[in-house]
Amino acid sequence: MEATASATEKGQLSIHTDNIFPIIKKFLYSDHEIFLRELVSNAVDATQKLKKLAGFGEFNGELGELKVTVKLDEEAKTITISDRGIGMTADEIKKYINQIAFSGAAEFVEKYKEKEDTRGNIIGNFGLGFYSSFMVAREVEIITKSFQEGAEAVRWTCDGSTEFSIEPAQKEDRGTDIILHVAEDSEEFLQKYRLSGILEKYGKFLPVEIEFDEKIINNPSPIWTRQPSELKDEDYIAFYKELHPMSEDPLFWIHLNVDYPFNLTGVLYFPKLKNDFSIKKEKIQLYSRQVFITDEVKDVVPDFLQLLHGVIDSPDIPLNVSRSYLQSDSNVKKINGYITRKVADKLSEIFRNDREGFEKKFDDIGLFVKYGMISDDKFGEKAKEFCLVKNLEGKHFTFEEYTEKVKENQTDKAGTVVWLYASDAQKQDTYIQSAQKRGYDVLIFDSVIDPHFINGIEYKIEKTSIKRVDADTLDKLIEKEIKLESVLSKDDEERAKKLFEETLGGAPKLTVTVEAMPTDEMPVVITIPEFIRRMNDMAATSGQKSMFGDMPMMLNVAINANHPVTQKILNAAASEGSEPSDAAEAKALIRHAYNLALLSQGMLTGSDLTAFVQQAISRL
Ligand SMILES: Nc1ncnc2c1ncn2[C@@H]1O[C@H](COP(=O)(O)OP(=O)(O)OP(=O)(O)O)[C@@H](O)[C@H]1O
């Protein structure tokens, strides 16, 4: 075959079905707009190829201005995409446009028959890029002239049937014009704002200048394509603002750059997260050689890292295949692992080099680090070194540091180190103060992720258990070998227990115990078992009902045997009659002490609280 088309030549496209275009149209229905991404990418590729050839010395002509132009002619109802790239000879058109694409199409037709769910993902996979133009055009013309010396211009047309024609054409300059004669049902694409929207979405960072409506619409050398050494903080922040104009400055960022065993560049930013767990994901954009692909990075980026913002660019991610394939793709898995490692390394680096700065940022990145620790084992392994906990004095500790700090005073008789924490320092103040009186330290875990975090890490820290200060009496939270002696006889303890059970009987479910506590602690302490409360907390923050959601709240009521009030109750009961049921004064004291205990747990509410206040007033 000759390299040029000397006369008009008609041909039949080699494909086993009469017309693939209705199929293309139907199956790519939701994504029609990507025709422009495909055609502009082809134009950019052709331009880049020419630049490369010039670099190799295989093209010695003038490169000149290399921009790609998109033109809209509303009257003629055409969209034209022009480049000054390598162009095509007649033979190349036959090879690249007629055959390859159509054999791809045949394969596509075969495959799609079985799988409906792959729609929208087909195009690039089967080399149908160029043919996506038929989703919006009733006829497509290619007028092209190869960069090669002496090449002649060619015109190819096809109206969406399996017939094409190819003939000599007039074209001064090298390069390609793709002219789309827009079909009636696609006239939405003849609107300027629609086209500029699509270009903005997919082409914002294409590597060659793209002109539309007499303006350059893109930034051809975005930050991720440049060397970290030539970039300043301001550059990173400016780029962040370009991506997320309304956001606060990011905390810090990671510049990704690998070329083996896969290609990947990008910049990931740590946004200010605070406690907002409802933060919108989809803030990382995925590019392939600077062409925007998607902001759904679910399969490429581990779940917890989707809280980050930024850009990932990799030609090695199979972008146009079905989801299940993507998940099992080994490159995707490697990329996933690489990103996780990079992020952990960066955090660990900041932690080591700037502990103070790291601590300041921890309120923001804590959510993210904790989320990572409980959802990704590999990250968790590394994060153990730099994940921080904060105590009520506002001091930060690594796990190891904290255990070191409290182990002397807070190791129980089984040798387990007990970390005490509060989830609300205000509400749990009584308990906190009691713990502090014993020289115990109390951590603060008050973010939405903390219930999950505590549950997730507890078993990962050796010989440690984590308990909320009000989960039990202090003696039971940290059981020691030597216990305080009870001043009450066994009989008196039994009497006190009975009196309480009788007085407080009914809902909620109560378990009454008598314990020897210091006299300066509360006469009655109410606690909710750690396990039950934790399950309820976790259910509440994840917005679901836990399997314990319907469980009646269980309360432990511990009577302080050593408190003078307990003695007073017993005395009152003794003087009032032999039957405990006679003891009106004793019962009033019990209710009062119980209400005070509820009050300090923040559990005295509603009509009970009102009655309690009324009663207190009447005593004034
Ligand atoms: N503007 C252009 N200039 C030069 N050659 C082009 C141009 N557009 C398309 N081609 C040629 O036609 C071929 C087929 O294009 P098509 O878009 O169908 O597939 P592709 O670009 O190879 O792959 P993809 O599926 O990723 O788009 C290209 O590989 C290229 O050789």
Automatic annotation (TrEMBL):
Top-level taxonomy: Bacteria, Pseudomonadati, Bacteroidota, Cytophagia, Cytophagales
Signal sequence bounds: none
Keywords: ATP-binding, Chaperone, Cytoplasm, Nucleotide-binding, Stress response
Residues noted as binding ATP in the record, renumbered to the chain: 38, 42, 83, 88, 103-104, 176, 323
A UniProt-annotated Pfam family: HATPase_c_3
Listed Gene3D superfamilies: 3.30.230.80, 3.40.50.11260, Heat shock protein 90, C-terminal domain, Histidine kinase-like ATPase, C-terminal domain
Family: Belongs to the heat shock protein 90 family.
Protein name: Chaperone protein HtpG
InterPro entries in alphabetical order: HATPase_C_sf, HATPase_dom, Heat_shock_protein_90_CS, HSP90_C, Hsp90_fam, Hsp90_N, Ribosomal_Su5_D2-typ_SF
Molecular function GO labels: ATP binding; ATP hydrolysis activity; ATP-dependent protein folding chaperone; unfolded protein binding
Span of domain Histidine kinase/HSP90-like ATPase: 31-172
